[in-house]
Amino acid sequence: MSKIxxxxxxEVPKDGMIEKVVGERTFLLASVNxxxxxxxxxCSHRQGHLAKGTLKANIVRCPVHGSEFDIMTxxxxxxxxxxxxxxxxxIKTYAPIIEGDDVLIEI
Length: 107
Known about the structure:
- The protein has no helices and eleven strands.
- By secondary structure, the chain is mainly beta.
- The chain has a single domain, classed as Rieske Iron-sulfur Protein (3-layer Sandwich).
- The strands form three sheets. The protein has a four-stranded antiparallel sheet with strand order 2-3-4-9, with no helix packed on it.
- Strand 6 and strand 7 form a beta hairpin.
- The N and C termini lie close together (5 Å).
């Protein structure tokens, strides 16, 4: 495994989220109760960019069809508003590594 830098802690808004693209992968970084959390940044339903959605407590809502995910576990807690065009599944989360002001993950 190797460490990659995703962002600086100061880039992640308090109780908000940002998207970072590294190579061909998209990540979502969110601030939840003062801690940075990281998960894959595309919805498992139709690849909507989760950072363009909403964050309430630890639940991220996809802006495309409304699927919701728990950023702490990656578990899908609510499926899409339009289930006939596919279903959402859990999303991979990552344990953030904080080094100084940098947020890194191992992949």
